[in-house]
Amino acid sequence: xxxxxxxxDGTLLNRRSRISRFTxxxxxxxxxxxxxxxxxxxxxxxxxRDILEGHRFTLPQAFKNGVxxxxxxxxxxxxxATLTPDELAIVVRACDDKGIxxxxxxFDEGDESVVYHPPLRSLIERQLIRSxxxxxxxxxxxxxxxxPDAVVTHVNSIGHGDAVDSVRRAINDEANxxxxxxxxxxxxxxxxxxxxxSEASKGGAINAMKRLLGLERVICFGDSDNDxxxxxxxxxxxxxxxxxxxxxxxATAVIGHHDQDGVAHFLRERFALTAA
Length: 276
Hints:
Order of helices and strands: EHHEHEEEHEEHEEHEEHEHEHEH
Strand content: 25-35%
Largest sheet: 6 strands, mixed
Distance between the termini: 24 Å
CATH architecture of the largest domain: 3-Layer(aba) Sandwich
CATH topology of the largest domain: Rossmann fold
Number of helices: 10
Radius of gyration: 18 Å
CATH superfamily of the largest domain: HAD superfamily/HAD-like
Strand order of the largest sheet: 8-7-6-9-11-10
Number of domains: 2
């Protein structure tokens, strides 16, 4: 059997960060054909929960680029490589050197998340923490209150592109860390930064899910550089037309744009799915 794995932002979701009606109907057709599907996303479980609700994502799901796998049936996480205190200190110092604020994400088995951060420096950072804290399962606290035994999954930041790129390059020089960045939804000149342990990846997560579910083949969809490990692990990989060039080059094929239901149209053709 095949396991179909979706990235969310820029891939399965439209420009409003939602699953369209046409895509939702396509997911229903997959279920009727007993074709297994799940997600591997850079989002947290809390950040994806409302988006996935009602679309029957019942299989294990990879969050934060494979740092965590959420098991819906038993409602627990299995954790990949998280950040040690020394690794976190490197990230915090790199952010501080370039004048951007690190948002340190932690989690517990109760599906709750606490985000720790130093004093905010800009309006864009205040907007980000308001967005993060709007989730009922996420709270924010000062960084100096971070417990020494906290499970740190990742660090996010937002700032001017040059500063974010400098931090990304500095962190990627560290042996056990990996950093991704891109243009923030607020538009230029703002960029986001996402840092986690280098041993955690979407590719590792889908290999784990493949073994767990006893499935033979993986077909995946993604649009950004954090999807490359997933493309390497999959039997087939597809990039929407809006994907970055390196992803398009690595893909089995390029399909339609994410805001035109490109993934859903491909799946209907690939599996001959027809609505009644």
